[in-house]
Write a structure and sequence with these properties.
The protein is mostly helical. It has one domain. It is built from 9 helices and 6 strands, in the order ββαααββααβαβααα. Strands 1-2 form a two-stranded antiparallel sheet. Strands 3-4 form a two-stranded antiparallel ribbon. A two-stranded antiparallel ribbon has the order 5-6. The protein is elongated.
């Protein structure tokens, strides 16, 4: 059993299995501290981090937390967002399930592309039958799933539609969820390493500081 004890012995904290505590802290913010019996810290961490995360999730309409490594959409922010643990698990499951032209799990709604040749997404298609087929196609929006289909820098796609619908909220929501992940990274470290140590200077050192210069 591992303990943390302050230099003067006034504080003694049972850390238990530190690696298990760190795992719990990642699994759900504050859970590692509850496991260690540090209930006040656990409650504060859980409330602040989960509130920050879910406010961002709400601002982003549930679209800003997803895992993607597709061309033009490498979602590196998810590496930090996933530090929040269990609330990001649906995005991980969606990423594992993701396959080209296969609908994501937990579809929340469908989108319909424009059905005329003036739409830039179809500007290179001249066959009327093909335009009609594409115009009737339903594009799925999955819960915490990456934008369906290709992401380009020149033509409309699902990701650009998200940005158009959410405006600045897309970036603000991403920032909220990103900060929540960063904060929980510190919480995981605190559960692993224990409280920060503060070493007080000796009385002799204090006396030396008070002596006037010769």
């Amino acid at each position: 059993m591992v303990f943390y004890e302050s230099p003067k012995g006034t504080v003694r904290v049972e850390l238990g299995n530190r690696y298990l505590a760190a795992f719990y802290a990642w699994l759900l913010p504050g859970a590692g501290h509850f496991y260690q019996g540090r209930y006040t810290k656990g409650l504060v961490f859980s409330l602040t981090i989960l509130t920050t995360y879910f406010v961002g999730f709400w601002l982003g309409d549930g679209r800003v937390v997803y895992a993607s490594w597709k061309t033009n959409d490498v979602r590196w922010q998810f590496v930090v967002q996933c530090m929040v643990g269990a609330p990001t698990f649906p995005a991980i499951i969606q990423a594992v399930n993701a396959k080209e032209n296969v609908a994501p799990l937990w579809i929340r709604n469908y989108r319909y592309p424009a059905n005329d040749g003036t739409h830039t997404a179809f500007s290179r298609i001249t066959d009327p039958a093909e335009l009609t087929r594409l115009g009737k196609r339903k594009i799925p929006d999955g819960f915490m799933a990456a934008p369906f289909g290709m992401v380009t820098t020149t033509e409309p796609d699902v990701l650009s539609a998200w940005h158009a619908e959410l405006g600045h909220n897309f970036d603000i929501a991403t920032l909220y969820t990103f900060v929540a992940g960063l904060l929980n990274l510190l919480v995981i470290y605190d559960a692993l390493a224990g409280p920060g140590m503060y070493f007080e200077g000796s009385e002799d050192d204090d006396d030396d500081d008070k002596k006037p210069d010769a």
